[in-house]
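Sequence only, no structure available. Ideas?
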Amino acid sequence: MNETGLTLGQCGSNRRVIGSSLTKRTYEKTPDASREWVTIVEGISAVGVALRPLVIFKGKSLQTSWFKRDSVPDWHYTPSENAYTTNQIGLRWLKETFLPATARNPPQTRVLILDNQGSHTTTEFLFECLQNQVELYFLIPHTSHVCQPLDLCPFSIIKAKYKQLVVELAHYDNAEKIKKIRFIELYEQARNEGLTQKNILAGWRAT
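Reply:
I predicted one. Tokens follow.
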């Protein structure tokens, strides 16, 4: 498992200057420059399967207005004060995502590879793993760029696709802000392109 982060809008140099060759009037269309951060916790298996993501929005509670759409992905969503992972969120991911998705009958030992950030080394997290026969393997600090399969392929594709979608949206409506419901829509499209079985397996092979 690993985390990635995106802003609701994508700042950058991408812009399009639009105008008539017959006039001197031009205007620019640029992506929404919102800097509100969103963290996404993703998990993958060695056979190329992606677990349900956990999306962490900035806020004190989830708002129904964030999900006003006919079809919202069946993911996990949670708020946090700064949109970053907390000890409670890390434990929630373990209990609500990893353990149910990897359960076997009869029970078998499971392996979880992750970084050694604080939310993964709390007493509660370690005890829950012990109780459920989960063996933890922590990546050496500062080696995720060579050891973390999500970083080595899927995340780079997801981020590039998300940025492309934000830029394309700006070309249609420069005034439209990337709100949370729109972020979910764009991230879903980017995720579908990045977290394919082929890309997941490519990430594992690159480690």
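The CA atoms of residues 153 and 202 lie 7 Å apart.
Hope that gets you unstuck.
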